[in-house]
Write a structure and sequence with these properties.
globular, 557 residues, 13 helices, Immunoglobulin-like, 31% helix
């Protein structure tokens, strides 16, 4: 064979070998705890409160509470919004008609719809992160036009975004709501809830000034505390603090609560019992594929933690990331913009696993008291199957991302040390994203005699690629044998979307197809449970992990 032919074959062989990912070695030390496995992920939210009581909404809420070892907190917009002239709930729109005024201006309170929503949570052992908003029509300083038509291309920032025409009536509305809640659910229950005022007042959700927002917050807090001094209130739930505007709004609000004049009482300071802000990624459609940007979401969190730590008075104050997502429009479908097409498949799953693990890392780094991180994702009614909204289920069928939360639900106790020869850390991702190579890493915990290890293979670019071989060694074991269960989310497991496509992507689903899709939407095991030998306190597990796949290894000692 000629030398040039030999060289060409060698070059081809080298290129093929180079295209295959190098094996990743991971070490988990079960004897080395690094901090609490706080279930801050057990928070969820959505814009459309009326979907709460629909059949599929109730089904999903039941599943969320069943997967969590702690009570799940639920945050919903529009709990005080009036129906106005709207025909019904819509994308980014809902209402309760809790408040109106008679011809003489006397307030009339009607809690029927609010109660139906909160009843749905409480019945399941869930807790509301109660959002005091938005402005009822009869209390709005600029009520017309009131209801928005965003889903039809109309203006979203209408009468519900304006300050109250009467701050005393606003305070009394909050007082009456809290008082009614105590009468209905009992004070012990209500004091376990979290309360907030409004949503993202630094953008169009609030058509007033910064000072008017502070005034509205002060009056709301005063009404709350008059009815329930033991209740917890916080805010301001501003947008991504990587922007100087949002960062300034957040810090100015904190300054007002700590040292400013209270508009409602005339005293110095306002109750602020947790800090709320939002953190969002920013996907793009690049060269024919979706590219995520986890770095900007983590930057939001990093910057907000820095802001909180700059106030010595706030040391150890609870922090809630009121919306914590890959981007900022749950109600935008993939047909609206192809960059939202990541939501049905495994990219959303692996992004969620990798990003939440880095939030734990940032929590440790900045030594903050992170109470919750709200995934702004629920379900949408009267929409096509797998329309590409940021939701956890479609038509009552769970999507792959929900199975990552099922994995988190199997973790608890103490987080364990994880070392890997390939994975990135939060600082790496903030600086460079996940572009040059895959992020293959893990988070682990030990709770009693159970060890859980979640392993992901994530990349910001949604393109095909080979699986990565993983060698996972768990040390610090004090038994001769352990039982191992291996759960997986990938194209073939825990994936209703792929099952639906294999059916031909039907929009009319038969009863038998629905049952099969329901089963495909549950968390599935990659292999049957097996016993593994422990030698010198160690056992090693090897497996291939597909790109954008997530594995969960559960070891029972």
């Amino acid at each position: 064979m000629k030398p040039n032919v030999l060289f060409s074959l060698f070059l081809l062989s080298f290129r093929l070998a180079s295209a295959q990912p190098m094996p990743v070695s991971m070490q988990v030390d079960a004897a080395k705890p690094i901090g609490e496995m706080k279930p801050f992920w057990a928070f969820f939210g959505y814009d459309e409160p009326n979907y709460t009581t629909r059949k599929d909404g109730q089904k999903l809420l039941t599943e969320l509470q069943q997967l969590s070892p702690v009570p799940v907190y639920v945050r919903a917009h529009n709990l005080l919004t009036s129906k106005g002239n709207s025909p019904g709930p819509d994308l980014k729109w809902g209402y309760t008609d809790a408040y109106r005024e008679d011809a003489s201006g006397k307030p009339i309170y009607k809690w029927t719809v609010v109660d139906s929503i909160i009843d749905t949570y409480v019945k399941r052992g869930m807790k509301p992160l109660m959002e005091i908003g938005f402005m009822p029509k009869d209390l709005s300083a600029k009520p017309e036009p009131y209801e928005h038509t965003w889903s039809k291309g109309g203006n979203i920032w209408t009468g519900w975004t304006y300050p109250p025409k009467d701050y005393d009536k606003w305070r009394e509305l909050v007082y009456q709501w809290v008082n009614h809640s105590i009468d209905r659910y009992g004070k012990k229950e209500v004091t376990s809830w979290l309360w907030e005022v409004w949503n993202e007042p630094d953008i169009g959700y609030w058509s007033g000034t910064f000072d008017e927002y502070c005034k509205m917050y002060d009056y709301a807090a005063d009404g709350l505390k008059r009815a329930c001094p033991e209740c917890t209130i916080g805010g301001p739930h501003t947008t991504s603090p990587r922007s100087d505007k949002a960062y300034s709004y957040l810090t100015r609000f904190i300054e007002h609560c700590l040292r400013g004049k209270n508009y409602a009482t005339g005293k110095t300071g306002t109750p602020l019992q947790y800090i709320g802000f939002h953190a969002k990624g920013n996907p793009e459609f690049v060269d024919g594929h979706i590219r995520m940007n986890m770095d900007v979401q983590l930057k939001d969190i990093q910057r907000a933690f820095e802001a909180v730590n700059s106030f010595q008075e706030l040391k150890n104050i609870p922090i809630i990331i009121g919306e914590c997502d890959p981007e900022g429009c749950a109600a935008c479908s993939a047909t609206r913009d192809p960059k939202y097409g990541y939501r049905n498949g495994t990219m959303y799953s692996s992004y969620t696993a990798a990003s939440f693990a880095r939030i734990y890392e940032l929590m440790d780094q900045y030594k903050v008291n992170l109470r919750g991180a709200v995934s702004w994702s629920f379900e949408f009614e009267d929409q096509p199957w797998f329309a590409g909204f940021r939701d956890l289920a479609t038509h009552g069928v769970d999507k792959p991302v929900l199975n990552v939360f099922r994995m988190f639900g199997k973790m608890g106790g103490q987080r364990l040390s994880v070392r890997t020869d390939k994975g990135l850390n939060a600082g790496d991702i903030i600086a460079r994203g996940v572009r040059a190579e895959n992020d293959v890493h893990a988070i682990a915990s030990k709770n009693g005699n159970t060890i859980g290890v979640m392993v992901w293979n994530y990349h910001d670019d949604d393109v095909t690629g080979p699986a990565t071989p993983v060698q996972l060694t768990i040390s610090g074991l004090d038994k001769n044998k352990v039982q191992v269960r291996h759960y997986r989310v990938d194209d073939k497991h825990s994936n209703s979307f792929e099952a639906w496509k294999a059916m031909g992507s039907p929009q009319q689903v038969s009863a038998n197809q629905y049952k099969r899709l329901e089963e495909a939407g549950q968390l599935q095991e990659l292999t049957p449970p097996a016993m593994k030998t422990v030698t010198n306190g160690k056992t090693t597990l090897t497996f291939d992990l597909p790109r954008q796949g997530v594995s969960f290894l559960q070891l029972t000692l």
